[in-house]
Design a protein that fits this description.
By secondary structure, this protein is an alpha+beta fold. It has 8 helices and 6 strands, in the order H-H-H-E-E-H-E-H-H-E-E-H-H-E. Helix content is about 35%, strand content about 15%.
């Protein structure tokens, strides 16, 4: 048998590029590393690819700590004819989404406490349906109320790499993300509070599904 050499950094970069191109959704560094030789410099390959694609028609971006190729933002007008008109969120829905983003995980009662008014069931249903919000778990308190948190689509929609990139309240209002009068008691807490809370019990046990890859070939007998 001949001597097998470990792939060099250019080959690792090619493989990372191929994985990102074929993936049906964004991939984390850990997802990529599992498909490469042990010790492969995934971070270096991603950095090199991001620099190489900077300013091109397709760019490499990070969404919720996962990587994907996407059309350059300044070329989005080319795809406008094939895009559906996005649903607009009401003031109550925007207000609720902002409270969940900055106070997650939180219960319906906690949302109502911050807003100072009752919350219609349809508002949370709409945010869940649009994929901006997800059910996080159940609070370990009497009644075990359900808690809510933002979903990855929230980060994707507002072009945030992670919850740590959430802007301050004034920045959100300037960007049009908060078209409302901030309720009394609304604060911007440490984003780390958005991580798993020991006071919450998960709704379902089990690991996340592995990323899927698009297949453009048919196996022959």
């Amino acid at each position: 048998m001949g001597i097998q050499f470990a792939p060099d950094h250019l080959e690792i970069e090619r493989r990372v590029e191929a994985l990102l191109f074929a993936a049906a959704g964004p991939l984390s560094a850990a997802d990529i590393a599992r498909r490469l030789p042990e010790g492969a410099d995934v971070g270096g390959a991603i950095s090199a690819l991001r620099e190489r694609y900077q300013g091109r028609g397709v760019e490499l971006e990070c969404v919720a700590d996962r990587w994907r190729f996407r059309t350059a933002p300044d070329l989005s007008f080319l795809m406008t004819e094939e895009r559906e008109e996005p649903r607009r969120l009401s003031k109550a829905a925007l207000e609720t989404l902002a409270i969940i983003a900055y106070h997650q995980p939180c219960t319906r009662a906690e949302i109502e406490s911050v807003r100072g008014v009752s919350l219609s069931k349809g508002t949370l249903d709409l945010l869940l349906e649009m994929g901006f919000v997800r059910l996080k778990g159940r609070r370990r308190t009497p009644g075990r109320p359900v808690t809510y948190a933002t979903a990855e689509k929230f980060l994707e929609h507002f072009s945030l790499s992670s919850l740590y990139d959430l802007p301050g309240v004034q920045e959100m209002k300037a960007a049009g993300l908060l078209d409302l009068s901030i309720p009394v008691g609304f604060e911007v807490p440490d984003p780390s509070r958005a991580s798993d809370d020991e006071d919450d019990a998960p709704l379902l046990a089990g690991e996340e599904d592995s990323p899927e890859f698009a297949q453009d070939f048919v196996a022959e007998d």
